[in-house]
Amino acid sequence: xxxxxxxxxxxxxxxxxxxxxxxxxxxxxxxxxxxxxxxxxxxxxxxxxxxxxxxxxxxxxxxxxxxxxxxxxxxxxxxxxxxxxxxxxxxxxxxxxxxxxxxxxxxxxxxxxxxxxxxxxxxxxxxxxxxxxxxxxxxxxxxxxxxxxxxxxxxxxxxxxxxxxxxxxxxxxxxxxxxxxxxxxxxxxxxxxxxxxxxxxxxxxxxxxxxxxxxxxxxxxxxxxxxxxxxxxxxxxxxxxxxxxxxxxxxxxxxxxxxxxxxxxxxxxxxxx
Length: 273
Prior knowledge:
Elements: E1 4-9, E2 12-17, H1 41-48, H2 50-56, E3 74-83, H3 91-111, E4 120-123, E5 127-131, H4 138-159, E6 168-177, H5 187-196, H6 199-207, E7 213-218, H7 219-224, E8 239-245, E9 248-256
Parallel strand pairs: 6-7
Antiparallel strand pairs: 1-2, 3-5, 3-6, 4-5, 7-9, 8-9
Helix pairs in contact: 3-4
């Protein structure tokens, strides 16, 4: 990435890539006008917005984290997301990856006509656990949102050629939920997180270096939604997996990339499907 110099910003010493012909480290504030090699302009703009990224990571800030208001047992859709090799990145790289993940999730939701502000999002450091609102169209989330997420990730990769590459695993389950002291409890978040951490999911992402996303869904979602083929969902794109964690076995289905058949007629389900 070339030689780095630093921008001092809100008590952060942030390295910015510089042209390879220069070897000096020059701390400056963002209020100063500093030449940045055009190839690194997107990364420079990201670092200028670090304050927004940090603020967005705080629960409840900017409407990012809707309050989980259900006081009794409920039934809903949970999505868990994890960034590949997050712990291997340095501190700046981790902050940038978090910011890019937040951005691509917002873009994908907006393009799929979903309101991310209404999701209850629990940060996980290298990802998030989201509880979608009741009445959300499950087929829309599985097909449209995931497909748009694949597109947004590809665009992010092309935009930030010199930064850490954002590749993710996504897991979903539709099941029981109940309020807990540290967030939602129940079958839905547990199954989603177990499938997210499955060795088969990690291996699938490693085995497909050109892909930016691996989707894992519960057996129930596959049987109830994927097999309907609503919204262009293609069952043939999935393969079954099984994982064991803490003495329990979880069954699901895995898909590399989009779960849709590009040539399929997109049937739209009724509300709540």
